[in-house]
Amino acid sequence: MPGDAALGTVLRDLRQTRKLTLAAVARRAGCAESQLSYVESGRRRLHPWLAEQLDTIYNTGGVVTSLLQVPDAASCSSSSTRVPNDYVLHVQVPGGGGPVAISRRDLLASLGIGLLASPTLTRLEQALGEVRADHDALVALTQALDRYQAAARILPPTRLLDALTAQVAVLDSLRRRADPALRRDYLALQARYAESLSWLSEEADRSEDALFWTDRATQWAQSSGWTAMTAYTFVRRSMMAISFASDGHRAVDHAQAAYDMPGAPTRIRGLAAKQMAFGHALAWEPDASARALDQTMTLLAKPSDDGRELGQRSVVSDDLYAIFRTTCDIYLGKGEAAITVLEPRLAALSNASARTATITRAKLAHAYANVGQPHEAARYAWQAIDEATTLQSLSARSELRRAMPVLRQWHKRSEVADVLHRLQGDGPTTA
């Protein structure tokens, strides 16, 4: 039976980062080396028993197993996919045992307004009763989040949303039983999970879910006294104003709130200034955009003792600065410098994050349209459309839709007409 190439890539990365050979993992897992090779290449399906063995070998805390408990890739490929509020999540209990089925609606209500009486949540509490809410559990759940975030660079968000939501259910239960000295750490980790869920929901074009998880990240960050995350959630709101609505002024308002927040670390203020630069560029305010971008570079060049784990981490700093500046140029109708900066970096970006590379191709399509090269614009647009569909990237689709008004001047060219038809069929994002 055919397997899953994207999941295979994640498994190969897990093995290689641990400097393990196929033979060594196969021997410990109790399978043939060829079977593991086929799974990693996507030519054979990953069986649940092997997923459990790989979780043990790679010490991934159930991450590999959880990735099997989602709809298949075909059912996740459409950006218009919506999941009903009342469906079942399968929560993998730390330390072994079968998954516990809980109602997603009950869980979200509980997380939003407090613990509610629910048979499914009661079953989860009982299943977690033997799990110690200690520092070791906190470390394991932190490591699991790192694995999910790495997988998000390759897999569609709908492959990860349920698994991450289930982890939040575990965290919330353990946090209530943890010693007072650890509760703040559990709350801070819940905020990190919520921020990741916010971003993944945004990429999946689920605006209500993205806002729900941003609100939870703010709530839990404030409760834990984590000012960096509290400020960063306003940076996230600025990002969503751009992704969902291309609203530059709203993006600036949210980013300004983060920038002005008392106690916000230098790094977070730098990321807020970056969002203000983007917002001003979208609003065609070049001088204000340039001033905000200069402030971005100044702030991000300074050392910061908090918030280092927040924001873009799959791209090295020099490339981030270049991407920030060229993004503003593209929004302001320029393109020459953006093309020169972005094209040579595509290979490195692809190695670091397939998602970031796809968004960059969408920006290059816009840049080439800005400089009057419709053939190159259409070529990059087609690549970005196909990859954005596979990866489920609202960010890439939004960048492409912002290029449409420029591309329409060449609507009689067949390659441009095909791109415009495909983008128009993609439909507007939900506000």
Structure description:
This protein is mainly α and 431 residues long. Among the domains are: 1-59, lambda repressor-like DNA-binding domains (434 Repressor (Amino-terminal Domain)), CATH 1.10.260; 65-73 and 81-205 and 212-221, no CATH class; 339-426. 69% of the residues lie in helices and 2% in strands. The protein has helices at 5-17, 22-29, 33-41, 48-58, 63-66, 73-76, 104-113, 119-127, 135-151, 161-177, 180-203, 207-224, 227-245, 248-260, 266-282, 286-300, 317-331, 336-342, 346-352, 354-370, 374-391, 394-407, 414-426, and strands at residues 88-91, 100-103. It has a two-stranded antiparallel sheet. Strand 1 and strand 2 (100-103) form a beta hairpin. Helix 18 packs antiparallel against helix 20 and helix 22 crosses helix 23.
Radius of gyration: 22 Å
Query: Main β-sheet: number of strands, strand sense, barrel status?
Result: 2 strands, antiparallel
Instruction: Give the low-confidence spans.
Output: 71-83
Which range does the strand content fall in? under 5%
Spatial strand arrangement across the major sheet: 1-2
Based on secondary structure, the structural category is mainly alpha
In DSSP terms (H or I, runs of 4 or more residues), the helix count works out at 23
SSE sequence, one letter per element: HHHHHHEEHHHHHHHHHHHHHHHHH
Overall pLDDT confidence: 84
Shape: globular
Count of distinct strands: 2
| Range of helix content | 55-70%
Distance between the termini: 40 Å
